Structures are given as C-alpha cells and as structure tokens.
C-alpha cells in the first residue's frame, strides 16, 4: 500500500525566498545587538596599580604614620656581578680554531659536552671562518653566541684565563 501526496495540500516547508528573508532578518538582528552592546560599553582605560611606598611597608610595625613617612630610606647595597654557575670571571680571547676542551669549558655556559661538540664540528668541517659559524654547532644559539662573543676569536693565540 502506497500513500500518495495530495497536490492541493499546502507544504509545511517554507519556500526559498521566505527562508532567505528569515536568514537576513536574523543576521540583521545579530548585527544590531552587537553594535548596541559595543556602543553602550565604556572605553577601556588602563590605570596603573597604586604603589605602596617602601618606607611604609618596612615600618609596618610603627603605630604613627607620620613617623613612618619621615624615616630616611636606606640605600640598597649593590651586588658584585656574578660569574656563571660555578665559574670564575674570565678575561682574554679564545681562538675557536685552536682551543682545547679544557679551554672551551672556561667559557660561561659551556660544559664538557658542548666543548666536545665544538671540537668534533671543527674536525669534520674544518676551521671556523667566523665566530657566527659556532651557531652550526648543536647547543649554541643566538643568545649563547651573543653572550660568548666578547671572548671568542678565530685567529691569534688563546689568551683566555680565569681572573
């Protein structure tokens, strides 16, 4: 048994133009809502966080606030520049083309494994043409090269020594 559809019965699906109009109205309502929300919002203003004076923080135990403000500030002691972890301060230049593992390990941030990589790279590829060629060695990136640059050279004798 088959059911037939009566052509005189109206369809429940809206026609294409009515669907397009409905979509356009929905999009228009969304745009109006977004714009109304945007126009009603207050402009964003970045305000700096209030700073608490260091004298007030140090003298928190003082009961008189005027006394806390009048106390002179103590100057901070300047620290001496630190050498790298476990390393001493160094001076001089290191020739990358003649340096030994021991000499390379004097550099800040260069341990025995990095020094071995430099030696192996030098044996495989020949002498360094410029200091920047050290970037081709694994473990030596841009920042490391910039940190080591004052101590590196590609010609001359190695004069690098601990202070």
Describe the structure.
The protein is mostly helical and 163 residues long. It contains 6 helices and 4 strands. The strands form 2 sheets. A two-stranded antiparallel sheet has the order 1-4. Strands 2-3 form a two-stranded parallel sheet. The termini are far apart.
Question: What features would you highlight for this structure?
Answer:
163 residues, mainly alpha, DNA polymerase, domain 1, two-stranded parallel ribbon, 6 helices, 4 strands
**CATH-level-2 architecture of the domain at 90-162:** Orthogonal Bundle
Helix and strand string, N-terminal first?
Answer: HHHEEHHHEE
The N- to C-terminal Cα distance equals: 104 Å
Mean pLDDT across all residues, rounded? 78
CATH class of the domain at 90-162: Mainly Alpha
